Amino acid sequence: MAERDLAGGAGAGDSGRSGDDWDLAFNRLLEGVSLDEISVPTASDQRRRKLTFSGVRDSVAEQLREKVRSERQRRETIARLKQQFEVCSTQVDEVLADFVSTLLDTFNGGGESRRLPDPRDGRSRSWQVLARRSPQRDDEPEPVITVQITTRGVEALDRGQPALECRVSTARNPRLVDFAAGLDFRSELEDAVCRAYRDILGTLRLAPAPDSGVRDDKDGE
Residue ranges per domain, the chain? Predict the structure, then answer.
């Protein structure tokens, strides 16, 4: 279709619901076309220029070119955001593994991080960090920190600017840290996980490792 070619979006191979959504997204551009700036002559004001088909065509085409350009830029942003989603997922895996080995293994008798199954819509991805609580009621680790990354505004009919957001939460603070994923995502995430650890530290089992530095060397003499 000519509309798809103009929008620079779905290709000839797209079909089904996804292709229909992108067609609707392009048609949505037409909703914003305005002819208000074209002076319409009235009986009381003959000085206004008369409308012509070619003049209206040029005005509509100019507005559509700008809207199509914006839509194309939006789709390019969405493509980059989906790549960033995968890069950030890898960084979450690495940061949580470092957190477990550096802090939980050192002071709290260990722990583990796990990635949860992705939801059907594929817009988000979640991880849980498991550790043992104190006072110890059983020996089973339980979720103590949750990390979730979510894409916003990436579907054809979504409104608003595309964005990738991250939330780090604990059981008592479901919205402990929220931030937009940027170039410094890894360090932002490490900072957020440290804040979460500080929030839950008093609820975790204390079991320092021999090399944790908790015991004074004189204690071993």
Answer: 2-35+48-80, 82-203
Tokens of 123: 């817009």
DSSP, collapsed to helix, strand or coil, labels residue 98 as helix
Nearest to residue 147, comparing CAs of 203, 185, 106, 104? Answer: 185
Q: Which residues contact 191 (CB under 8 A, 6 or more apart)?
A: 177
Tokens found for residue 214: 């908790």
Phi, psi of 46, deg, nearest 5: -85, -5
Q: Which residues of the chain have pLDDT under 70?
A: 1-48, 136-138, 156-157, 216-221
Q: How many Å from the N-terminal Cα to the C-terminal Cα in the chain?
A: 83
Kindly report, residue by residue over 137-195, the tens digit of the pLDDT: 667 899 999 999 999 988 766 777 899 999 999 999 999 999 999 999 999 999 999 99
